[in-house]
Amino acid sequence: MLPKYPKTSPLTLELRPLLHPLFQQLPDGISEFTFANLYLFRNTHRYAVTSLVDGTLAILGQDAATSFFMLPFALPEQPLLEQLFRERGMMKCASRVQATMLEQRGYRAVEDRDNFDYLYRREDLALLGGRNYHKKRNLIKAFVNSHIFSARPLREEFRNDALCVLDAWRNETDQGDYEAAHEALERMEDLQLCGGIYYVETQPVAYALGEEVAGGVSFAVHFEKAVSGYKGLYQYINQSFAAILPESYETINREQDLGNEGLRKAKLSYNPSGFVEKFKIYPGKPLPE
């Protein structure tokens, strides 16, 4: 039983049996809206969960000084929605359908382009056919021809190898999502995450980890980490992982670019088939510039 708003509950593993089946039924495939994603980033965004008096489930959060709420499953009755906007300020991760409905009620919807999820046809990433992927194929060929490599399912027995990859990645970059990625590996059985791990000879060099979304027709790659020094490695694991995913996954969700221009260029270079659009919603009166 979830507490009634304004009381909240932290996101704990004990809530997974209640929340995970609800998230699995969501059709939009918004990458934030899985139990695993919310749980792993619960400290980053200070997530908490609550039930409104009409039974609508809401996720509350805070980024720095900005409070927000999210409504993954439904919009509440109008007085409750107005209360959320008064007390929490803004709504994040609204789907296009929600944004349209809220605009009709007089709210202001703003595209959150930096957080659009990139969608790719699974078959496109697995085959990399055609002229558009010529450079990707050349990079993969360079990796394959230069190294003795292997790939394995990321099972518990290979967890420590994946943690070694993650630690090496952290030492070569800023920490980014290190804490969430570390806990994802520690809790991958509890959260039912699956992935692959990649070796050059006996050295672990990369891994990918994620879960299905959008009612089972898409696979979201939550984490993809690799060590430096292997030309074509990222291109290889991208293609290799797509190739081993079941054909029941029509698309692969490779999540957002967070406004990073280099990351945006890299994601666009794989020719996305579309985006999972997300919107921020504000009260109808325009905010000051």
Attribute tags:
alpha+beta, about 35% helix, about 290 residues, seven-stranded mixed β-sheet, four-stranded antiparallel β-sheet, 10 helices, single chain, about 25% strand, globular
Task: Provide structural commentary.
It contains ten helices and 14 strands. By secondary structure, the protein is α+β, with helices and mostly antiparallel strands. The protein has helices at 16-24, 35-40, 78-88, 96-104, 122-127, 134-146, 159-172, 178-186, 233-244, 261-268; strands at 9-10, 48-51, 57-63, 66-70, 91-94, 108-111, 117-121, 149-153, 194-200, 203-213, 218-226, 251-253, 274-276, 279-282. The radius of gyration is 20 Å and the shape is globular. Helices cover 34% and strands 25% of the residues. The strands form three sheets. A seven-stranded mixed β-sheet has the order 8-9-10-11-12-7-13, sandwiched between helices. It starts with 8 loop residues before the first strand and ends in a 7-residue tail after the last strand. α7 (159-172) packs antiparallel against α8 (178-186). β9 (194-200) and β10 (203-213) form a beta hairpin.
Per DSSP, the total helix count is 10
Number of strands: 14
With strands numbered from the N-terminus, the spatial order across the biggest sheet is 8-9-10-11-12-7-13
Residue-averaged pLDDT: 96
Helix content range:
25-40%
How would you sum up the global shape? globular
β-strand amount:
25-35%
The major sheet is characterized as:
7 strands, mixed
